[in-house]
Each structure stands twice: as C-alpha cells, then as structure tokens.
Amino acid sequence: MREGSYGTVGQAVLGREVAGTVTAVGEGVTGFAVGDEVFGGCPGMVGGWAPEAIVTASFSAHRPGEVRPRDAAVLPVAAGTAWDALNELDLPEGATLLVNGAGGGVGIPTVQLARARGLRVVGTASPAKHAVLARFGAIPVAYGDGVLDRVRAAAPDGVDAVFDMAGGEALRTVAPLVADPARHLRSVSDKDLVAQLGGSNVARDRSTAVLEQLARLVAAGALDPLVTDVRPFDDAPAALRLVEEGHSLGKVVIVVG
Predict the structure, then answer these.
(1) Can you name the residues that pair with 19 across neighbouring β-strands?
(2) Which residue numbers delimit the Enoyl reductase (ER) domain (predicted)?
(3) Is the dihedral of CA 170, 173, 179, 181 positive or negative?
(4) CA 79 to CA 98: how far, in whole Å?
(5) Predicted local distance difference test score (pLDDT) of residue 10
(6) With pLDDT > 90 as the criterion, what percentage of the chain qualifies?
(7) pTM, whole model, 2 decimals?
(8) Cα end-to-end span (Å), the chain
(9) Cα–Cα distance between 192 and 180 in angstroms, integer?
C-alpha cells in the first residue's frame, strides 16, 4: 500500500490483519461475543495498527489457546493466500510444485502447506533464504541466470505447477515449465503478465473456514508462521523499513498497547 500497489488511498491507518480480544460485535453478527479471543482481516486492508480495529466477521475466527496471538495475527493474508492458491492448483500427492519467490511472506507458508499435502516443492529464493526453505522441506534454487537449468536439475521429471510471488521477468522465465498454464500457473505479484502467459491471479476465499483450518495446523505443529521479530508500536517505522528492505527472514509483528 505504501508503494502504491493498491492505488491512491490517501491517509490511512496501516494494518491488514490482527489478533486480539472482541470488545464489541456489530449488528447481525453471530458466532462471536465480547471477550472472545479472535484473529482475522481488516476491511479495506487498513486499520489494524490501532488500540481497537474493525475486523470482518466473515474473515475472522476464534484463536485456539495453543496458538499465540502473534502467530495467529500473521495467518489471514499470507498463509490464507497460500491455502487458496494450493486449493486452486489442486495437485495430487506426489506432484511437483515450483514456488517462485519461496522465501517471502507467502512463499514460506506455501512450502509448508504444500509439503503437508504430500507435494514435492522446489523454491526459488535468494541464498540467504535457502536454509529455512530446506528446513521446511523444499529444494531451494537460486534466482537469476541459469534458473531454468537449476530447476530442471532439482526436478528432472518436470514441474506440474508454478505459484509465483516474484512477477516480471522471473515469472516470464519459469512459466514455460508448466504444460497447462490455465490450470497450473498462478501469480500474486503480476496479474497482468500471468494472464498474458495463460495463467491467472489467485482468487481469495477470505473465510472463517480457511482461518480455522490454518489455526488447527499451527496448533498441531504442522504450520510454523515463522514470526521472527516482534516490535512495540513505537518501533513501527523501523519494522516497516526492515520488511521493505527485504532484511526480515520471517514475519514481523507489531504489538499495539
């Protein structure tokens, strides 16, 4: 949003996803009550960095006691996107998925969720992210010149689908690896180019059911939200710089209040 990816929004309170305690319930909302511990997404992708935030009831869920608030807070956007993409690709167990940009906020949960579904995962990423990708079960390969050769060496039987978080030339380079882009090429970084290449953007579900599934996986130890930095609200500018400059290995959480 700060880079203008969502158009001109004027002044806004940042914060797309939150976890906390319900202090009020809107008219007609069922399933939630004051005092419930919940997590979810904010309407309009804004408003989370505040003592109180509005959360969309249909994109909220109760937080299990086994899941820390900091871990629940980072699930709706990145892990939710990963879940939706894998549902769209609908690959059978044993298939090979290339995650293009696997070291980022969406890529890391994608690797974990794909491995949990029995998929073989190859992930392009900077060398600094290779160790964490390998820890989560992916075969990491470096970006840049020769990436197709490295992917083919890692997946000699071919790639069944590509999920892209890089866009641009990085997407254009790997797209020919899939035989049926309409079914098996998705991007969340470059919707215009992926359409030109025969694939599509990921249609988000943004539902309570998806959040409940993700929370269960975290509680069971099958999904690590990989929160690597927790900052007080006064450190928000430094936290933003850390993320925008690409220096964060995992998710950065801001605690308000």
Answers:
(1) 39
(2) 4-254
(3) positive
(4) 17
(5) 60
(6) 85
(7) 0.92
(8) 24
(9) 18
**Run of H or E residues at 217:** helix 208-219
Question: What DSSP element (H or E) covers 255?
Answer: strand 251-255
Amino acid at 90: D
How far is it, in rounded angstroms, from Cα 253 to Cα 236? 9
Site of tokens 């641009």: 168
Q: Do residues 182 and 200 make contact, with C-beta atoms less than 8 angstroms apart?
A: yes
Q: Which two tokens stand for residue 183?
A: 């079914």
- Residue 98: name the closest of 159, 147, 143 by CA: 159
Contact predicate 53/20, CB 8 Å: yes
Distance CA 209, CA 217 (A): 13
Give the separation between CA 209 and CA 219, rounded to whole angstroms. 15
Distances (CA, A) of 200 to 85, 96, 187, 189: 10, 19, 6, 11
Could you identify the residue written with the tokens 């940042």? 14
- Residue 154 near residue 139, CB atoms below 8 Å: yes
pLDDT digits (tens, 9 = 90+) for 15-26: 899 999 999 999
Would you state the structure tokens that stand for residue 111, as one six-digit string?
A: 């690797």
Q: What is the pLDDT of residue 247?
A: 66
At 186, is the secondary structure helix, strand, or coil?
strand
CA 222 to chain centre: 16
